[in-house]
Structure formats: structure tokens, C-alpha cells
């Protein structure tokens, strides 16, 4: 029978593995994190303490405002004189805020950080006395006697400095932000807290999703481990069936499209909005031209037909994205901008992009969309297609050629006139 726990009742550390304690802090009233994330259930700042026969290690700290809670729990399970090692898996302020004070209270402790964390550490300390620290990578470890802390280099999850730390003897992975979520529940463990599935997936979508490639690289290091528990820096400790969360991360990071079309096929999505049907006719002609190239799967979506949020998954897995908009009051239409502005959570670097649209007077929309795509680090191989008012048969043929040319670039066919990558010129 699994025992319950209420960490809000007393500011004491909670032992969840032999000699391994949670000494973090609760923030149940937080409703927005880093401006972009809503946190209906607040969050936790998880810090951990590992006791070995040859000293104590502290893994991550807490946000500075919650230092009192952190130090109270730490003091309930260890003396500062026992602390031999401090590990920061990630240096964002919500994990490192109490570090300067901890180092003042435990000056004999040695700090371990990733190789990419050194510049961030200097910024964190704001000119305070230099700390003695060691940079670590995958394969490095530090001994606490009968406990070993092994380090895993997992950059860009979700900052360049991120890493994980694994206690080999107990099978506990201190995962940093990976496998975490903003969900505060005083019962602490995943098998005791409320239903946090939405928070877990929401966190992945907004924090980890842009770094899917790095997630997959990290999973190659994590999956072979003997995992009894996963202890992230936010949200519940995953003590019940922890490996299912690893499997879920792999599922979230694996392209569903790749399982639906041939491995060699390329996906092109054309989004458009049309006031009088002219941009729609252009979109259909572009789609027809692109579809004539073998190995290119083209999808056509009218943005007037619904919300933009469901398209984010499609965009992430597509190889080429085309946006069509009429020019109204010197601008692209709002649904196109809404869709483009929602793409901050998607890694678009290197995807092909193009713009097109009908206009009445000046036709700025196409150029504005192209500028936005360049800002998202997309490649713009062909100059955008513009048509004044109603497209003629000849102009529709030009649109077919436009779609065909982009599709040829997509499958790697050489271009007779050469293709300019306008992203390189921006």
C-alpha cells in the first residue's frame, strides 16, 4: 500500500528513495509562467537532496522568492556542513535562484554544471565572488561514497545548458525540465495527485516541442537506464510506472505523418484566405502545379473554414508551407497572421516557404508574409506570386508553374535558372 503525503503541512524534506529527499517549494497560486504559459494548478520548484556515505548532494534549488521554504526543508534532513556537491541541471532562475545563498551557507560545497552553463552562471552571480565549479558531460560522474551521480548531456531541453543527473544505485533520474509540468499538488507523487495529463502534454507542447530532435537525442541516453523514479524540476515525482512517461515523450516527438505517407514523399501545405475568390483560384492552381511533381503530397486549407490552432501539428510535420492572402488596407488578413504567430512553438528552421495573393492596389501582403517566414528561419526559394484582382488564364498558368517550381526544389530537382534562397539575403 502506497502511503500518502502532504508536503504543505510541514516544511520538512520528504524521503522518496533510500537517502533521496524532495526539498523543494510549492507555488499553488501561480497562474502565468514566463508570460506564455498558463498554470491553472500553479507549479512546484523541485529541489532534491541525496545522502551518501561520504557526504550530501543538492540537485537544483528553487526560485529565489521561495528560498525560505527550500532552506527549511533542507535543514530538516541535513546540516550545511555535510553538503559536498551541488548540481544545477539548468540555470534558469526558477531552479538557481537560491544558489548564491546556498553557497554562502555551504562554502565547502563544489558546484557541477554542464559545459554550456558557464556564461549563464556568471550572469546569475552578478559579479559576486567567483565560485569553484566543474563542468561535466555524458560519462562523467561524482561519488558520494555509496551513491554515484552520473551526468547526461541533454542540451536544448529546453536551454543550451540543460543536463540530467542519475543516481545509479537507486534508479532515480533527476531530469530537469524534461518529464516535468506546471502542476502543484501537495500529495507530490504521480500516483497520488490529481489528473495532470493535460498539464503534462501542455508543458511538452510549449516547452519541449520546438526541440523534438534534441528530445529524441536525450531519449537515446535515458531509455537504457534502469528507471525506478523520475524526479523533474516541476510537477509530480514520477514513481509509478515512470517508463510510460519516457515512452509518451517518444510518441509526442515522433512524426505521425511519417507513418502515413512514404518515407521518400514530401509534404506541402497551402493555407489561404480569399475575399472574392481570387486568392482561392491562385491556391488551387498552385496546388495543381505542385501535385504534378512525383513524391510531393499537397494539402490545401481555406483558413476561413475554422480555427488556426489545429493546423500547428500539420505545420510541424510538413516540409513546405505556402501562405496566400489578399492585401487589405496594406496588410495580410488576420487569420494568416494568427496562424503565423502561433508557430513560435514549432521548429520551422530549414522548411521551404512561399507566399502568394491577389491584390487591388499595392499588394504588400505577399512581401510581409515572406518577411515573417524569414524571421522564422524558413527558406524562401521562389519570389512570391502576386496577381492584380482577377487572375487571367495566363496568370493561373504562372501559378501552376510557381507551385511546380517549389515542389521541384522540395524533391531536390535542379533548377534551370537557379533558385535564390532569399533567407540567405535577409
SS-based class: alpha/beta
CATH topology of the largest domain: Metallo-beta-lactamase, Chain A
Whole-number mean pLDDT:
91
Distance from first to last alpha carbon: 62 Å
The first-level CATH class name of the largest domain: Alpha Beta
Q: What's the story with the biggest beta sheet?
A: 7 strands, mixed
Write the layout of secondary structure elements.
Layout: E1 14-17, E2 20-22, E3 25-27, E4 32-33, E5 37-38, E6 43-45, E7 48-52, E8 55-59, H1 67-77, E9 83-87, H2 93-96, H3 99-105, E10 110-114, H4 118-125, E11 133-136, E12 141-143, E13 148-153, E14 163-167, E15 172-176, H5 197-208, H6 212-222, E16 229-232, H7 243-253, E17 266-272, H8 278-291, E18 296-302, H9 311-317, E19 320-324, H10 334-341, E20 352-359, H11 364-375, E21 385-388, H12 393-410, H13 422-425
Parallel strand pairs: 8-9, 9-10, 10-11, 15-16, 17-18, 17-19, 19-20, 20-21
Antiparallel strand pairs: 1-2, 2-7, 3-6, 4-5, 7-8, 12-13, 13-14, 14-15
Structure description:
With 426 residues, this protein is α/β, with parallel strands linked by helices. 30% of the residues lie in helices and 22% in strands. The chain folds into two domains: 14-253, Ribonuclease Z/Hydroxyacylglutathione hydrolase-like (Metallo-beta-lactamase, Chain A, 4-Layer Sandwich); 264-425, Rossmann fold (3-Layer(aba) Sandwich). The strands form five sheets. Strands 1-2-7-8-9-10-11 form a seven-stranded mixed sheet, covered by helices on one side. A five-stranded mixed sheet has the order 12-13-14-15-16. Strand 1 and strand 2 (20-22) form a beta hairpin. Helix 6 runs antiparallel to helix 7 and helix 8 (278-291) packs across helix 12.
